[in-house]
Design a protein that fits this description.
The chain has seven helices and 29 strands. The chain is mostly beta strands. The protein has a nine-stranded antiparallel beta sheet, with no helix packed on it. A six-stranded mixed beta sheet has the order 9-8-13-12-11-10, with no helix packed on it. Strand 5 and strand 6 form a beta hairpin. About 2% of the residues have low confidence. The structure holds MU-OXO-diiron (FEO) and calcium ion (CA) (3 copies). One calcium ion (CA) binds next to loops.
Length: 604
């Protein structure tokens, strides 16, 4: 691509050529080194990865599957040592386990208790120490005291906030409604100003099981307690066989268990003995992420999308202000107000509080207390008239009162369901909204919004894309998912096209998207994934000299539609064996670390 063609963009690098093949690619002048792969031992006593003889016990000491969010908190002033915090969103058993095909939804005949326990051990998160050597390369510090896995198999967590100890949170194993074992489907996340790690629980509904037989793929759970709530949240999804072996995932045996998932989890990476906390004040939905900022009035603000077609955009604002003395479990995450967004046609945004007793959030409408409002956040937001969005994924605040919201796609929006903030019917490629909070204050309850870009191929009129015309054919993208802001306040977008990538012919990647001046809306391709991989992270260290990226599920999504790699995404015949390219190893989700050759800030 011609660098001069996007001269108004502030990102200085030679644009990468778009495409799709079995490996990753990065712009000239940069190194993208594999840092951590699924199965890599992360503690001094962890066994080496043995793909043919996996055990849950080994997986509990090895890097988990499907790395998504990546965060970092420095351990020294130079920022050359720090703790990497990584989410492991879900598992692909047909790629993980040799000889196992994609299991039938009814029965999961091939799934044994040991395989289920390995899957559970491969979920959750990882905290590891990493260090930058004299030669400028980063490596795992394997004997660090901080290294640990957080899993739904064995990590005990405390419940905090309005729903803690509530009747609807009690189970046979936890009659107090105060303690949960683990976290699942941790997609994006965030780091707090005090250096703790927030893990968002996204598609938790998929893990719940019922013995009631499926009727046209939808079990009749009308006899269940909380049936309307379960229906609104899509519980039970029956995506995994966990409920066959563990009662807590079976809603016939533990009808309240789903209420204990779908929250934001806080982890203290500096204290391996500190129990993670599920903060119920931030609401219960399919949280994509939880990016934080400090508002100009000093309060903590957390932006979080509910990634579902026609669901909503939220933000949480603490009552107290950030003093600098906060620690894990700070009341700033339990004492505050959750708001849901209404995007009006005239370009204003109104953040509506979800407070019991205000407006329609009363006992007459089924909300007896604030715990009910938080457990049934979606239903409360329905009553307030929030704007149904095209799957809100990551949202990234910038300190100046601006926030960027990734709307990834929504193929089910009908022409009569479009609104100004979601203007395209059957949107396959998504769009990005820029929010400017009133007076540049992130805690404001009003502001303005505008569409930064409408994604997809600008050369196809019917797509209805909107980019700065300086964007090259390599630079446009579809399905924005995660995003980050670098040290210079510039926006970076990573994509997740899922099975849609056959429609663009491009792999997922990382794009530098200009938001300011004449270059506004110009996008440039910086990195691209191996076939079938989704790009997660991204995370810049404070000096912007290091960028962490996570390649999720390489060799899977939509491989059927890619010519040259006809099928199939199994262990025997994957579309790629990235990053090892070993015939005895399946493709492995991995975290990469990007640096500029010779050192210096990225894209400057
Ligand atoms: Fe897990 Fe919304 O992506
Ligand atoms: Ca995501
Ligand atoms: Ca992010
Ligand atoms: Ca996604």
């Amino acid at each position: 691509a011609d660098a001069a063609a996007h001269g108004a963009s502030r990102y200085k690098f030679e644009e990468l050529t778009a495409g799709n093949d079995e490996t990753h690619h990065i712009a000239d002048g940069y190194d993208a080194q594999i840092l951590l792969r699924w199965g890599d031992p992360i503690t001094a006593d962890a066994p080496e990865f043995d793909v043919m003889n996996q055990t849950a016990e080994a997986q509990l000491k090895q890097f988990g599957y499907n790395n998504d969010y990546v965060g970092f908190t420095a351990l020294n002033d130079e920022g050359t040592r720090g703790l990497l915090c990584v989410n492991h969103e879900y598992t692909n058993e047909e790629v993980m386990f040799p000889g196992l095909g994609r299991q039938d939804r009814d029965g999961f005949a091939g799934m044994t208790e040991e395989l289920v326990n390995i899957e559970m051990a491969a979920h959750g998160g990882t905290v590891v120490e990493v260090a930058k050597g004299e030669d400028g390369t980063w490596a795992l510090v394997r004997d660090s005291q901080y290294n640990r896995r957080i899993t739904p198999l064995d990590t005990e967590m405390t419940i905090s906030g309005p729903a803690a100890g509530h009747d609807r949170m009690m189970t046979n194993a936890d009659p107090e409604g105060m303690t949960v074992i683990g976290t699942v489907n941790n997609c994006a996340g965030g780091m707090t100003p005090w250096g703790t790690y927030l893990m968002a629980e996204e598609n938790f509904h998929g893990y719940f099981w019922t013995d009631i037989m499926d009727v046209e793929d939808k079990p009749d759970i009308s006899g269940h307690s909380d049936a309307a709530s379960k229906k609104r949240y899509g519980v039970p999804g029956k995506w995994y066989a966990w409920g066959k072996f563990h009662d807590r995932w079976n809603i016939d045996k533990e009808p309240n268990e789903p209420n204990r998932w779908g929250w934001i989890v806080e982890v203290d990476p500096r204290n391996p003995d500190a129990k993670p906390i599920k903060h119920t004040a931030l609401g219960r939905f399919r949280h994509e992420g939880a990016e934080t900022t400090v508002a100009s009035d000093g309060r903590l603000v957390v932006y979080s999308g509910d990634d579902n077609r026609f669901d909503y955009m939220y933000k949480y604002v603490s009552n107290g202000t950030v003093t600098g003395n906060e620690a894990h479990g700070s009341e700033l995450l339990s004492d505050g107000t959750l708001y849901v967004a209404r995007f009006d046609e005239d370009g204003t945004i109104t953040w509506m509080p979800l407070i019991h007793g205000e407006g329609p959030l009363t006992a007459e409408n089924g909300f007896n207390d604030q715990a009910d409002v938080m457990i049934d956040t979606r239903m409360a937001a329905d009553l307030l008239g929030a704007t149904p969005m095209d799957r809100p994924e990551d949202a990234q605040p910038r300190g100046d009162g601006t926030a960027y919201v990734m709307l990834t796609n929504n193929s089910r929006r009908k022409p009569d369901q479009v609104n100004a903030a979601n203007p395209r019917p059957e949107s396959s490629f998504g769009h990005i909204i820029e929010i400017k909070e009133a007076d540049g204050n992130h805690s404001a309850t009003t502001g303005t919004w505008s569409i930064l870009v409408k994604c997809g191929d600008p050369s196809i009129t019917e797509v209805g894309a909107q980019w700065n015309p300086d964007t090259s054919e390599d630079g446009w993208f579809g399905s924005p998912d995660n995003c980050a802001i670098d040290a210079d306040g510039r926006l970076w977008i990573s994509t997740d096209q899922g099975s849609n990538w056959g429609k663009t012919g491009k792999s997922d990647g990382l794009y530098a998207l200009e938001t300011e001046g004449e270059g506004r809306g110009t996008s440039k391709l910086f990195f691209r994934c191996p076939i079938g991989g989704e790009l997660c992270g991204p995370y810049f260290t404070e000096d912007s000299e290091t960028l962490f990226l996570a390649v999720q599920h390489p060799g899977t999504d939509g491989t059927k539609s890619f010519k040259g790699f006809e099928r199939n995404s199994t262990f025997e015949d994957p579309a790629t064996r990235w990053p090892d390219f070993d015939p005895n190893m399946p493709p492995r989700p991995s975290v990469l670390v990007v640096t500029k050759r010779g050192g210096g800030k990225i894209a400057v």
